[in-house]
Amino acid sequence: MMSKKKNKAKEESEKEINVDTSKETSNETTIKEINLDFKDKYIRLYSEFENYRKRTAREKIDIITNASENVLKEIIPVLDDFERAITNNEKVEDLSIIKEGFELIHNKMYKTLTNQGLKPMDSIGKSFDPDIHEAITKIPAPKNKMKGKVIDVIEKGYTLNEKVIRFAKVVIGE
User: Fold this and answer.
1) For 3-28, what is the mean pLDDT?
2) DSSP of 122-170, one letter per residue?
3) pLDDT for 19
4) How confident is the model over 61-79, as a mean pLDDT?
5) Cα–Cα nearest to 128, from 151, 145, 155, 105
6) Fewer CB within 10 Å: N-end or C-end of the chain?
7) Hey, where are the domains in the chain?
8) How buried is residue 100: exposed, middle or buried, by Cβ count under 10 Å (0-12/13-18/19+)?
């Protein structure tokens, strides 16, 4: 009897081991499937991100190369005016008409550029600011209150949407 019980116990423990092994195999398969699923999702996400990165880099290059297109479209009519003025100036003998033509073209060009956000700096009489001015030279100030201030502007400075794009070249009083 004892041996029957031992055999029966042995058979039951072997069944348990077999059941446990089949569970492990089932768990391993499930884990492998989950890992493959995550790996697939990761690869797809990585590919999408790489495509996004390349697309945005291309778009950025396009924006940079075509950024000045609108400004150039607005300046072309001014260039046409200059060409007409040059052609007409060959026949005109009255200098006042030539001067008036150049003033009209200058005003048109100025208006076009200010519409794009360009603003000239007003520097005369203001304190020297190295963030917007470039000192060319210093001269004795005509008045005491003009010391350290801009006395003359050699080249105007310009800002584009509040950013300095050309520093004003100035003469400072000392």
Assistant:
1) 58
2) --TTSBP-TTTEEEEEEE--SSGGGTTBEEEEEE--EEETTEEEEPEEE
3) 47
4) 86
5) 151
6) N
7) 1-66, 68-116, 120-174
8) exposed
12 — alpha (psi -120 to 50), left (phi > 0) or beta?
alpha
Is 141 a residue whose pLDDT tops 60?
yes
Tell me the whole-structure pTM to 2 decimals: 0.59
Count the neighbouring beta carbons within 10 Å of the beta carbon of residue 168. Answer: 24
Q: How far apart are CA 101 and CA 86, in angstroms?
A: 10
Distance CA 46, CA 51 (A): 9
Q: What residues pair up with 164 in beta bridges, in sequence order?
A: 159
Q: What is the mean pLDDT of residues 20-32?
A: 69
Look up tokens 């492998």; give the residue.
32
Segment 85-94, tens digit of pLDDT: 888 888 888 8
